[in-house]
Batch of 2 targets.
Target 1
Amino acid sequence: MMTRLVSTCLAVLALCGGAATAQELPALPDAIKDQGTLRVGVRCDQPPYGFKDQNGDFAGVEVEMARQIAQWATGGQIEMMCVTAENRIPQLTAGKVDMLIATLGKTPERARVIDYSTPYNWGGSDLLVMKDSPIQKLADVRQAETVVMLKGTTQAAWFDANEPDVPTMRLNSISDALQAFKQGRGDVMAADVATLTVIAEKDDSVRMVNEPFAISVGGIGVRKNEPEWLAYINAALDRMAKENLYIPWIEKWAPEDKWGFYKASFPPAPFPEIE
Amino acid sequence: MEFDPAYLVRHLPALWRGLLVTIEVSLAGMLFSIVLGVLGAAARYLRIPGLWQFVAFYVEFIRNTPLLVQMFFIVFGLPAIGLTLSLFWCGVLSLALWAAAYHVESIRGGLETVNKGLREAGQALGLKPWQFLVKVSLPLALRVAIPSMLNTSVSLVKNSSMLQAIGLMELTFVAVDRMAIDFRMLEMFTVLVVVYLALVFVLSFVAGRVEHVLQRPFRA
């Protein structure tokens, strides 16, 4: 009861704060203003972050974020584009999109190539194994025959850095990886906690190891040397957090039993300290 | 984004391992495709009942479906009917089946250039069709077929890069994986272009030598 009261008060305070700062977004860079529309790269295969709904329309929390920024920046004019883990950076650096809201995990090596906004999401990785697997904790992964994962992900980087001797098999999409895992090409599957939770939920023959690793934060990606644009995005993210916009988006796009999980990984929830 | 040699050096060991896989899978693929190609062409030439029609269908099937789809079928489709090969052998199989279809056509073309008079001479000497094929027309036909078989083999080396989609850790895979992890494109693409060019040059050189040796009896 007490906590509820406190959180209500906090929410009210946050709303007041939001209202007070509502109009304080910095000036939009001329390049975007002249363009008249906002071009955003989003994921199309990562529910509830970015995906296509039954009608083939863009959907998800990150898509809502993109629409909201467009609302503030260009009066709602927006062009969205599907990007994959492999092609998103070329799309950005080649100037095809103005920003990426595409489950973009932050690493020091990546930050040399693009600029990141303040983080708006955090998450970890976990392992998925068959119910009867001897693998009980993360360290047991050394006994694994083959770990299936996605190419170019934080999991792939983590295994390269921490468990280079564990054989891995890296595929292009979650469906390929899951297929390979279920066909026995690997005895472990590594992916985001969020992704694996959905899979483990639907499938009784598998379980998660439940020892998260490779905790990382995700942000919006922009080209280097666009400080005005980055400042605008940071201010917009700040405003989204203050106005508590993530909550309704999560409730709109995530399954109800996962609301708690996602709400804990988006602002205003606290983020782990990572550098 | 400037070119960072230190980054490249850091990832050379992984790229080297990828290159070895590319070379292994390509060589094995070439070997099997040439064997299959010769057998297939022979089956068509000798009109072995049932078999030659199958070869004709096989050639059309392979040439008219995308290689990537064939690869996915071998990796994810075959296990459904109880045949699970390792990724490496999936790669060898898909490349060999693909290239063999083109080899069959090249060798068949070569066989058709064999002089009719030679065949009559062979018959007059009492050679059975398969004896004539093995002893006379195939050696002649292969000389004619070598340039186009080389073409196919070069394509095979380049197509081995598609195996990155099924997760075989060959050269392109290593580079693409690194690019997606670190977002650095320039270094990895440079390596890919240089290494594939070098591979193809070496292959062309070897094939040129083979051609030279095979043509020796025909030079004055």
Note: The first helix of chain B runs from residue 5 to 10.
Target 2
Amino acid sequence: MTRPIVAIRSVSKTFGEFQALERVSLDVREGEVLCLIGASGSGKTTLLRCINQLTSVDSGGIWLDGELLGLCEEGGRLHRLTPRQIARQRLKTGMVFQRFNLFPHMTALENITEGPVQVQRRKREDARAEAMELLRRVGLAAKADAYPAQLSGGQQQRVAIARALAMKPMLMLFDEPTSALDPELVGEVLSVMKELARSGMTMMVVTHEVGFAREVADTVVYMDHGAIVESGPAADVLGAPREARTQSFLSAVI
Amino acid sequence: MTAAHTLAGGFPDISKMTVARQAHWRRWLTAAAIVVVLAAIGRAFASGQIEWAYVGRFLAAKVILEGIANTMVMAVLAMALGIVLGVVVAIMRLSPNPVLTSVAAGYTWLFRGTPLILQLLLWFNLALVFPTIGIPGLWSARAVDVMTPFLSALLGLGLNQGAYTSEVMRAGMLSVDAGQYEAAQAIGMGRLRALRRIILPQAMRVVIPPLGNEFIGMVKATSLASVIQYPEVLHNAENIYYANSRVIELLIVAGFWYLLVVSILTPLQMLLERRFARGALQIAR
């Protein structure tokens, strides 16, 4: 087995009274496609947001590529990283949001080149060439100069995937990438994600698309009330779930 | 009626008929009444104690033109200062740092809480508090020499405007969806870069109408600087009527120029709005 890219150890998080995550531990290996399933409020999205530090953990730790996130150890004590250091750690992950969050004042191409040019200080021509290649890859080369408002939901989400890929992340995080889409637009986004999975990208996907998980995921994790109930190979968890809670969830969604 | 003119179910075929124009006689009546009232007011002014010849003579007088030029220079510079301060203070106000938040809140409280004319008088009379001002050991000057009417007006108007503009900018920044900030963070942007590249350009679309409003207010607020001897158009008009006693005529001259400037500014604002509506045209229409 390859080394884990993500190692989550005993992570807990509360929002006021609400226990969003409770002692969650999980490994994601290089090249693995891991789908997180579960009812809303089960903590899957919070877990994803902790990995790119849009949410901070209360206790426990997440190691990405061997590096502890958000904290550093010095003299036997933990210190919070500066915003700049956190921004640098974020570059290792790409995030795709449920509601796309494309920048509406920029064209599709500008959305994709913004990070490489402004953050990574890459040459504009190189970034543009790579962005065009990414747009071709998600099937939107003809829409390079379109503004997000001129694109359908499915097209916007494909641009958002290209925007995340442009930063050359080692891990892609998808937060319910098809939940805000009209049913007929789900397929085009899923097929881009399948292609990405085939290319060997390490992916964590929060999804309600059990069919997608069955087809693409190496591992499926079922969460409930902030804890991992069951995890294992997709065929086992989806095909022959051991836990009663997993069984009742799956029978409700399929 | 032949069968051809009847639709299924016996309804008449109305596809070839035209819709008659509505008479709108009530609109015509009110419009006529307004014209009559306006004519009466106009006639009253024409036959009142106004020497219209004086209005015409001073409308383009050199002192008046210099005055309106000074008015515009001051309005533009003070507004620029106000916008720069407003953006900085709004960013401070929304910062996670409690020291910055407090400083921003204190500034807004102080400069929004006192009358503008009082602030102008305070700046102009700063020499009464500090006879000399400067940086110890490096540079110093007499406050009366530094606090000219121009600088006093600029500081008074600009700092006051900054307090108001900061609230407009803050509202604009809050109007941008939180997901935009998260998306900016997700591609590795720090707070300031996200504000500059992602949040502020989108906030601009929202703040331009209120900022246009504020700028029109600023053009007229410069007239308060007449009390500290800044030679803007009202101040110059006053100086003329102190000499020739044509009070109303010169006030009409000044009023004409303010109206003209504001009338020109409105279409300029429309142009700016269109510029910042990039990517949003489909939603706006």
Note: The radius of gyration of chain A is 18 Å.
